[in-house]
């Protein structure tokens, strides 16, 4: 017998333990080299564990167990013979697909009928149980209509009521679930921020009509040229990048009794996922155009929703933007994402009466909020920063000139 110990890899710096979230294979199953066999929850992300060799698996750490980084999750007996009739190892992505044969069609048909329509995969079943989702609420896209984890995540993102089945049944049951490492870490960080920072919030309102008019005029040609949609988040990211240069304290952090200023803007974009709020980072946002920002946000958001985001992609931000407006929030006080010193909160857009040139007019208004650490950012800087962001959003051309109008640049003001 030749055994290989599968040890838990390090998900990232400062993480010492993880939770075995789910095994995708059973004890004694024959696994192929590179096959994903388990999902691991750290306090920052969900990772996949792939087999390091082909053979029969023996599970050591059960689903739900907490395992130290470097601890043994399972062993693989590489001397075990592959069972007759076992499916072949999946082809490598770079390999060109072979021409279809009659036998291959027969095998594919058999694989599709191995699962009844609406049967969830192990990973999908676990997520459905956690979120109280019925198989009848989801259309499966896998072989033979099998429900995949991606189907569950996509259905949740569409906004259906996951508690509807239980609520209408009249049952008076309760459930207890162990907090994931990610949820524990989020809880600890939120409490820490409230206890260790002098957090205040300043508010303002933005007339979104100029940006909405700009989007309406150019959205089709923008998508045709760049291959991505033109959303509000890219405008806010660009405006914040410019304003952070004007007020560097908002882009700084406190470390060991010193203020660390950044000459770059790595902006975190808060994204909601089934496991909690995650904040992927857009590096050097100040050097990017709107199309590049939209593309980066789209790629990061997809990784978060699919559970593919890495720890490195969520570390090192200097400022964060969160959009509660997508859930209908009118006004809120976002909590700072440490070790950063400020966070901008976006909210929903509502038509409201406003005064312009002595006349009452209806405009699409968004309330914005800047929460900041008063230990490093003074009231003047926080208010001025938010006013500058507001000014650039209401006058998008100012984003081209570092927050100044074309006339001010021409006059050297």
Characterization of the model:
The protein is an alpha+beta fold and 413 residues long. It has three domains: 82 residues, RNA polymerase II/Efflux pump adaptor protein, barrel-sandwich hybrid domain (OB fold (Dihydrolipoamide Acetyltransferase, E2P), Beta Barrel), CATH 2.40.50.100; 66 residues, Irregular (Dihydrolipoamide Transferase), CATH 4.10.320.10; 212 residues, 2-Layer Sandwich (Chloramphenicol Acetyltransferase). Helices cover 30% and strands 24% of the residues. The strands form five sheets. Strands 9, 12, 15, 16, 17, 18 and 19 form a seven-stranded mixed β-sheet that branches. It has a four-stranded antiparallel β-sheet with strand order 1-8-6-3, with no helix packed on it. Strand 13 and strand 14 form a beta hairpin. Helix 7 crosses helix 8. The protein is elongated and about 85 Å long. About 6% of the residues have low confidence.
